[in-house]
Amino acid sequence: MTVRKPRLFYIGMVCTEAYVAAIGEDAYVAAAAAKMTAISSALRKVGKRSVLVSLPFVGKGSLRQRGRALRGDGFPSYFLPVWRFALIRKICGTFALARFAVCVIKQGDTVLFYNHALEYLLALIILKYRGISVFQDIEDVPTGKEAGVRWLIEVLCYRVMCNLTSPHKITVSNQIGRCLEIGEFLAVHGVATPSVSTHVDPRWARLSSGGALRVHFGGSILPSTGLDLFCDTVMNLECHSRRLARDVIFIVTGKGDLDRVRGLSASLRSGRLQIQVHEGVERAGYYELFHSCHASLSLKCPEGELAGTTFPSKVIEIASAGLALIATSVSDVGDIFKEDEAWIMQSANADVLSSIIMEMAADPIEILRRASAGQLSIQRRFGPSVVGASLASFLDLRQSLA
């Protein structure tokens, strides 16, 4: 008789690249999707039967999407039926996930919830009643600086999930684990993606021969994620453009206040600086733009409320791709990168960031050196096999002790 190998269901609310391709419509593939797919793949690498389960979002042209079972991301995934309208989505999504918890998840399986959501709660209660091991991956924490009904619901969901899942948590950073005073936790900052060595990439040859320095700025383009700092820095560089050793091109992708960035671009007159805004670009186009750059920015404000409640996982993506990282010192960033592996800003202001970019423009060899060192370090410490093994070991041990 064949013994069924237990599965690990990783449940979230994301659209992956395989899902977007399957529905044939434009849908935003956010950082959460990248992390969930990377962790699911990492667990597969170490022998875990990981399965991604999602309550995704409908494409821009649909009112409803049916449920789908896919393997396009390199592992099995279930996308439950969803509706566009928020209230219908929450009600139907709650019952769809609860039905999945009853009909698909079996005794001996493990469930890992990504963050917290109202739609999870009924399924969570069912799983607890059935005696299934349930863990929580804490990505961010509701702050006390907000107010209103939505905030109260989010706080309620967060607290219920914390209490009903295992006391042993997965967190996005060591800082969150310490701040929440969790007795035992594993910080999973992200998974390094395999990438070609920076030394054989032609973009560096072009830079060394006098080409423009290309700097990426992407993700959520908002004041809390560094939009003010970015704009102030560009204006600072524009005022001192004669001191730049070469032209600088900023490649801006993502979502947010892109009209402000376009306005800033239109105001540039020196000819040494250029801002290219790429809104709504497809994933393949995004990767092409991203890998054409020499450096990338992670500018989350240290004073902002997000700084202490989450972690900018883009720093792992940037370094593992072989780009030189320029980042503010928030959460665990300063602990992860040594001084010779990235530019970590201890003071988040336009003068400091302008100085770093001027230094880069004058010394392409140093950019390549730090980018290479950062890439090697991140690939070694956050590679798929390393992350997969540590997470599998953590979950297996805590499940056996439960």
Automatic annotation (TrEMBL):
Domain Spore protein YkvP/CgeB glycosyl transferase-like: 274-381
Superkingdom of origin: Bacteria
InterPro entries per the UniProt record, alphabetical: YkvP/CgeB_Glyco_trans-like
Gene3D superfamilies: Glycogen Phosphorylase B
Pfam families, alphabetized: Glyco_trans_1_2 (PF13524)
Protein name: Spore protein YkvP/CgeB glycosyl transferase-like domain-containing protein
